[in-house]
Design brief:
The protein has 181 residues and is mostly helical. The protein folds into two domains: 84 residues, RNA polymerase sigma factor, region 2, helix turn helix motif (Rna Polymerase Sigma Factor, Chain: A, Orthogonal Bundle); 96 residues, Arc Repressor Mutant, subunit A (Orthogonal Bundle). Helices cover 70% and strands 0% of the residues. The protein is globular, with a radius of gyration of 17 Å.
Length: 181
């Protein structure tokens, strides 16, 4: 039986892995470098991919999680550095939103930040996240709900003051809150 090539749909996989990495380390050159490292490693170890253990994206996210942790460890001595990003839109609002979300995420433990990155950065379902982390779907949903509940006060505080920090996180949380409360 011929093995399925885990990198057959490379453009989509690159986009999804980059989204996850950018959510964890920030958009830009650092995320590009880490994503490149992920695919370099995936190409090198392509033969070790086992389709019975999960989808190619799950395999790549597993590699990406380790590369992200290494990148964050390398960066720690320079903590506090924020990339200087300009926006063609309202720069002040954009910066306030990014800083609010970054501060809120910084207050979370590594596991919670990883869950948020997998859900909103990579746009994975709870089932897919469970496969990657070795958790049941319900456990992922509960952990995400609790994480978003911890983020809500900070994010809604920014929304109440006129901004709209992390609309995808805040809006999904408010939509689901009625069903989970």
């Amino acid at each position: 039986m011929a093995r399925r090539d885990p990198l057959a749909n490379a453009p989509e996989l690159i986009g999804r892995v980059y989204a996850y990495v950018a959510y964890r380390v920030g958009d830009g050159p650092d995320a590009e470098d880490v994503t490149s490292e992920v695919f370099e490693r995936a190409l090198r170890y392509r033969g070790s991919y086992d389709p019975s253990r999960g989808e190619p994206l799950a395999w790549l996210i597993g590699i990406a999680r380790r590369r992200v942790e290494e990148a964050l460890v390398r960066r720690r001595p320079e903590s506090g550095d924020q990339p200087d990003v300009t926006s063609p839109e309202d720069v002040e609002t954009d910066v306030l939103q990014r800083l609010t979300v970054a501060a809120a995420l910084e207050g979370l433990d590594d596991r919670s930040r990883d869950l948020v990155a997998l859900r909103y950065g990579t746009d994975l379902s709870a089932r897919q996240i469970g496969e990657i982390l070795g958790l049941k779907t319900n456990a992922v949903e509960v952990a995400l709900h609790r994480t978003l509940a911890r983020l809500r006060p900070e994010l809604e505080g920014e929304s109440a003051s006129g901004g709209s920090a992390a609309p995808s996180i805040a809006s999904e949380q408010s939509e689901k809150a009625s069903g989970w409360a």
